[in-house]
Amino acid sequence: MAQGSWLIVGTVPDAHFPLYYGSYHLEDERIYFDDADLQPISVQRGTAALLAAAWLTLQALGKATPKALVCGDLGQGEGSAKVYDLLVQRLPEETFSGLTFHYLYPDVDWHNRIFMGLESLARRPLLVCDAGFMYVAKMSGYAQSYDLFTPDLGELTFLADAKAPHPFYTRGFVQAEDHDVAELAARAFEQGNAAAWLLVKGHEDCLVHQGKVLETIAEPNLPVLEAIGGTGDLLTGVVTGLLAAGWPMQRACLWGARLCRKAGELASPTPASQITDILPKIPALLTELAVAKA
User: Where are the domains of the chain?
Assistant: First the structure.
């Protein structure tokens, strides 16, 4: 793996939040940026939850914490364009071990400019995609050049539909049920619309490699977690942290899924629970894992 920091790229739902690139930390359920003029952002869901989970994971493992490239965007794309533009400028200047792309307005032109910048690097970093950037990675035709997508079942159905430009427009004949993950994953990969690895998030989490399901993680089984927004962002963040710590892909995905399910169980969740009730359980679980593997 190339040496360098891990970069998390996304947006926050605040039109006034400026473009920011740099370090950050988690404190009192908020993300604080290394810029005194920036207000902290609450951790509930979205990119903020992913940032928090990745930071906590790396802190618990005693590894260097990631950087963030974020801007405010309410879905119109202006903030995402600023993020894209700065990333294109930064790619030739810095070395990243990996990048995780999250909530970003799906713009094929910007995606392709970033992709070509990544392809021109002497050593290409690991590439993880979720949410909006995963959609545009599929739309661009370059999906199989990515290392990991983390879709939910609905997003997997979108990946399996060769013509759908967005999950909202997945055609009706492509149905999504838990037992269809293997078929949908195979179809998505055969059509060139899936990354080499998929971690399909849902009632059961499924790890897929090159279109084939390798393992299903179903325990602890806590249906109440489905009602808590941000659990998928949490999982992508933990896996990001494990990858940034140097874990191999298969181990990072499997243990990330298990750790998030166990953290959810330890939080004794109800439908009123928040992602901030689950996050604090992660460091102790990682410490236990490190001791068990020592």
Answer: 5-293
Per-10-residue mean pLDDT, the chain, length 294? 78 95 95 92 93 96 95 95 97 94 96 95 94 93 96 92 62 54 94 96 94 94 83 96 96 95 91 90 84 46
Give a three-class secondary structure readout of the chain: CCCCEEEEEEEECCCCCCCEEEEEEEECCEEEECCCCCCCEECCCHHHHHHHHHHHHHHHCCCCCCEEEEEECCCCCHHHHHHHHHHHHHCCCCCEEEEEECCCCCCHHHHHHHHHHHHCCCCCCEEEECHHHHHHHHHHCCHHHCCEECCEHHHHHHHHCCCCCCHHHCCCCCCCCHHHHHHHHHHHHHCCCCCCEEEEECCCEEEEECCEEEEEECCCCCHHHHHCCCHHHHHHHHHHHHHHCCCCHHHHHHHHHHHHHHHHHHCCCCCCCCHHHHHHHHHHHHHHHHHHHC
Fold topology of 5-293: UDP-N-acetylmuramoyl-L-alanine:D-glutamate ligase (3.40.1190)
Give 83-116 pLDDT, tens digit per residue: 999 999 999 988 999 999 999 999 999 999 999 9
